């Protein structure tokens, strides 16, 4: 499953079959479907990455943290604190 292609809308927001989400640019493993949760945003939401280096994080001036592919730097979205399936978790 290729994650985060912004050209045609998000195909995997309501997709909950087992699998691995990878970067749409380079194929780097990002998230497992087991860490995915339902959310009101237009993009899929995850509570954790597959590997420690799956993503890189960059603080933004307006508050959230920009999340990028840990291999190629492709933009994946933003992390919001205290916006996860359980209070205290982040959403990617």
From TrEMBL:
The keyword tRNA processing does not apply. GO terms for cellular component: cytoskeleton; nucleus. Residues 1-92 form the MsrB domain. The keyword Kinase does not apply. It catalyses: [thioredoxin]-disulfide + L-methionine + H2O = L-methionine (R)-S-oxide + [thioredoxin]-dithiol; L-methionyl-[protein] + [thioredoxin]-disulfide + H2O = L-methionyl-(R)-S-oxide-[protein] + [thioredoxin]-dithiol. It is found in: Cytoplasm, Cytoskeleton; Nucleus. Belongs to the MsrB Met sulfoxide reductase family. This is Methionine sulfoxide reductase B1. It comes from Sphaeramia orbicularis.
